[in-house]
Amino acid sequence: MRTLQELVNTEDSGWTYIKQWIDVSKNKVEILPCDLPNAKDALYKTQVSTKSLMGAVIYHTGGLLIDHGWIRILGSGCKLLKRSLPDWNKGKTFSEFGEIAGYLLIADDAIGGFYAVNGGYLGNDAGNIYYYSPDSLEWEAMEIDYSQFLLFCFETDMNEFYGNLRWKGWKDDVKELKPDYSYSFYPFLWTKEGRDINKVSRKVLPVEEVYNFNMETGSTLK
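Above: the chain sequence. Below: its structure as tokens.
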């Protein structure tokens, strides 16, 4: 594994570009604070340079909240968003730090959807982003890389992207939702009875429970 000194690039940090994008973002972006020990630990465990945009997010933020907290981009963790990117992935996409993951979870949303960088497991387009949608329980290729994913979060009309997966009054509900939790729906969104999200019941659960349930259920439906 590379040392921390090899990973921290003080002359050409990706954070410079990210901050410029955030300053002109169409969607609301909240930069969560991080402390240096956590940032160093998370960067070392992930083994990416701060020259990369992923490394910059990890090293300079506790995470990013997009569109009133609807999307949570993982960084080095903080009091509000306790999950760091490497710690969240351990036991899910790899067993030990330093291993090459088949895919790497980088973000999730309020409805139990998950975003990941493909490491080769999800398809032949390694480096591209996939979305695990709660209404299909399948990994869907977005045909963008991590840098384009950040721009997607900053610039995309999320009402258009999520469509009927947003309910009336979602904004007020999500503002109160802690970013380590997600909604679980019943009837399930992938069923015929769950197609109208305004008519299903919502329950707040730890995002870990939602991830495990959606992944396990998705594998049984194949």
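The chain has a mean pLDDT of 97.
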